[in-house]
Specification:
218 residues, disordered C terminus
Length: 218
């Protein structure tokens, strides 16, 4: 049982807040190309009450640039934003196929062209799942809501928890305020590594989007 009728509206509101926060984290870790990126950061920041994320967004509007992004995350940069960079014993081909399979199971299409293990894509997927869970809650679809919540936990445990701590540590020493803040916000939501390895099977059934609202570019 997901919750009583009285619990549904507060839970939906909480899920929508989380979805917005995750989307902002995803955008902050994406390449700041053009005015649309800055407009979306400003719009999302106005919707979140989290002071840490608001500060990161404010810093991003002042200091983010495409050049700084590539200097930070490109070859020889101080930080890595792909999960494969932190996995030394996993076959990257199978690992990436597993992630793509999970995205397809939930009809998720990334809004960026980054690889599926990129932190921005994974964070965006979490936001998408929170929206999907909220939609299922409003329709009383408890099974779909539970499956979606389980998928969020799997992404956190098997994927983002591997990235969050070392990424936050690297960016904290980088001197780049907005990325350090975004990484700290990510770590706060994910926590330390769970010491698990990614699974190669797709453990989730396909859940059709069913009218789920999509993120729109600003």
């Amino acid at each position: 049982m997901i919750g009583t009728t009285a619990d549904v509206k507060p839970r939906v509101a909480e899920l929508l807040r989380e979805a917005t926060q995750w989307r902002l984290i995803a955008v902050l870790f994406s390449c700041p190309q053009g005015d649309c990126w800055h407009s979306e950061v400003a719009a999302l920041a106005s919707e979140v009450a989290d002071e840490q994320l608001q500060a990161a967004a404010e810093a991003a509007l002042a200091e983010a640039s495409e050049g700084l992004y590539h200097t930070t995350f490109g070859p020889g940069g101080p930080a890595a934003v792909r999960q494969v960079s932190y996995l030394h014993s996993t076959l990257s081909g199978q690992f990436l196929a597993d992630l793509r399979g999970m995205y397809e199971a939930f009809a998720y299409q990334a809004t960026s062209e980054e690889p599926p293990d990129h932190v921005a894509v994974q964070a965006d997927f979490v936001g998408y799942l929170r929206l999907k869970e909220a939609f299922a809650q409003t329709r009383g679809e408890e099974e779909h809501a539970a499956v979606t919540a389980d998928a969020v936990q799997r992404i956190l445990d098997e994927h983002l928890s591997i990235i969050a701590e070392p990424l936050s540590r690297s960016l904290a020493a980088s001197g780049i305020s907005y990325l350090a803040g975004a990484a700290a916000a990510l770590l706060q939501r994910v926590g330390p590594p769970r010491h698990t390895t990614p699974q190669t099977e797709d453990a989730f059934p396909v859940v059709a989007p069913g009218g789920l609202p999509e993120w729109q570019d600003a």
